[in-house]
Amino acid sequence: NKIEKMDSGHTEYYVQREIIDEQRLKERSQRMDPSQINLPISHRLKKSLSCSTPRLKRSIVGFLPVLSWLPRYSIWDYGMPDLISGISVGIMHLPQGMAYALLASLPPVFGLYTSLYPPLNCKRLAPDSDFLIYNGTNVTEEVDIISRDFYRVQVAAAATVLGGLIQVVLGLVQFGFVGTYLSEPLVRGYTTAASAHAVVAQLKYILGVSPKRFSGPLSIVYTLADLFMLLPQTHLPTLLASVVSIVVLITAKELNTALRQKLLVPIPVELCTIVVATVISFYTRLSKTYKISVVGEIPSGLQLPSIPNASVFSEVVLDAFAMAIVGYAISISLGKTFALKHGYKVDSNQELVALGLSNTFGGFFQCFSVCSSMSRSLIQESTGGKTQIAGVVSGVIVLVTVLKLGSLFQELPKAVLAAIVFVNLKGMFKQYYDIVTLWRSSKIDLLIWLVTYVSTVLFNLDMGLGASMGFALLTVIFRTQRPSYSLLGHLPGTELYLDMETHKEVREVPGITIFRSSATMYFANAELYLEALKKKVNILHLNLVTIKYIFSEAGQLKETNGDIHREVELGWRERENSTVFVIPETVRTSDVHHTWMYLKGTDPETTTLGSVSDLHDGDTTTLDSSSEDTLSRDLERVSLGSLGKWTWDIHSIILDFSTANFIDIVAIKTLRNIFHDFSEIGVDIYLAGCQALVVEQLERGGFFSDVITEGRVFATVHDAVLYCLKHRGAEILHSYENGRATHLVCTSIYYHCINN
């Protein structure tokens, strides 16, 4: 190996080695047989079922991580940060918990229950009720308020338990990878649509009106239409309370943001707002004097656990599934964000089980579904919280409120809680800017965002999730079915091969076509791959069977033409009217008659082969009665450039498989047909850049044979190019321009046959 410092400051590497095909690569690298790597199923099953003390300990600690960090907990290092963090988060739990209960059409006290039980069961982040659970109820207006609220609680608890069980089961069967199918545009579009539902649900509290309840597809449209009809009945005192609360909250939150560097802990804006609003409401008797709707009675004490009503499972199963999947996606995304920032690893399956246990446990105490909260997780992080002890502290604050302080909030106006929800959705409103960002970066991702948003808004959360996931999978199929295909050229002075359409300095290797697809070839795009290959080598309008027919007929012509004194090389060109001519290039004199062939038509099923004879030098003839073109016959020069588009001069095609990560049986059959059909017209096919797994799958699929050997597969494209040049002989190599040949071969890889 030789390394030389260039004047420009760059280092140029000269590498001398042999050309490496797949067979030689196996020999040199001593690649192991798959049977040596993959253990038998019986052995793997025995290993997975075996149990030892260290393995049992790892399993228990993995399932209950508290057993790992609690014995090593340092009060001096973590005690004070966890205490401050827990108090800060607990204070935020109170107003937001009650507000989100209102969002879920439940009595506010159940928001406090939800802020108490599930966080004690979750293992790392501070989960809370920031996810819309279900779409109202089906009870009629005649049902009294107590019965209505009781039924709503039953539905919420059933959906929560069912969603939690779904999460636990999916986590136990290692289904955590499902989160990877929920792309960021899908999740953001979905949560933005959910925020639209949340805003519409709060408008009745902000305006002080009572619209009809709608469910099913287009329910949001019907609700908005009903609210529009009720605008003249807007309760002005309620609207005023809502507007004042929104202005105060937005102003205070902006001040919090501006002063966050100077504040030890953020100002509890929501808590201050509900305290002030409750005091004003109590002393001015807003509920009686101005008919403003208030929270009402908040019972003190804890709820006894109860078994959810299984009879409503069938009604909420779709909501529960949507809640389980999207809630997990939001939580795992947030978990990975903090893991990347603080340098720890997130186990997606463990997160799924933990979230499922939180929901299942909380559902027995009439809690509604939870997932991780960005706002409260950020507060816990910014205030120094390190462990789940902070969650215990926040739970104690909520517990004290539920036991002793809950009754103090009975005069809290619902409009204030609705304002809290509205303001906290500000981050969701900012996600509408994704449309601009995605328009600039990826139109397909933008389409996923828009389809998810529109389908979720119009068809509600459950059907919207299914529709958006289905559409996202369709885009994956579309991208693999419609990849970009390119012809590669050589970058002089390197062993790099780049797309000739996008790089000006790359040069085509004479006689060699290098074809690459941007996606893996498999059953869904194998036919498209073949069509793209034929198009790139300019034989799309003719199938290979027809081309072989031309060559066969031309070969018979060669045998019957007695004037041929040397080996005939066939050149053929396409005229403007799609007539293809097959011309025997013979040693000819001016007084000898010659016969030559032509092929008329572009449809392989109707194409016919004809011949014209008894032409002398300088003669002209019209080959197609429908064409005005005439052909000037010059046998010495065979000058057809004025009527032709291309000349078939390819002897080798290299298929760059560096982008393929697997190959199926359909693609293997397609490859086998490509090798066979092109060999019939004198073109050799080679593979380059195959990963070891792809080669293994080719072997198992019966691709290799006596005709198609491993010698047709090369480690790199450059190896394949050099082999093609060497295989065609030294006279072909030296027939190229000296500069091009030197740049192509000599500066990157030397082999001993080049100068032979």
TrEMBL record:
The chain crosses the membrane at residues 155-177, 234-251, 263-283, 320-340, 352-375, 387-403, 453-478. InterPro entries: SLC26A/SulP_dom, SLC26A/SulP_fam, STAS_dom, STAS_dom_sf. It comes from the Eukaryota. It is found in: Membrane. GO terms for biological process: transmembrane transport. Coiled coil: none annotated. Keywords: Membrane, Transmembrane, Transmembrane helix. Its main location: membrane. CDD domains: STAS_SulP_like_sulfate_transporter. Residues 502-724 form the STAS domain. It is a multi-pass membrane protein. GO terms for cellular component: membrane. This is Solute carrier family 26 member 6, like. It comes from Cyprinus carpio (Common carp). The lineage of its organism: Eukaryota, Metazoa, Chordata, Craniata, Vertebrata.
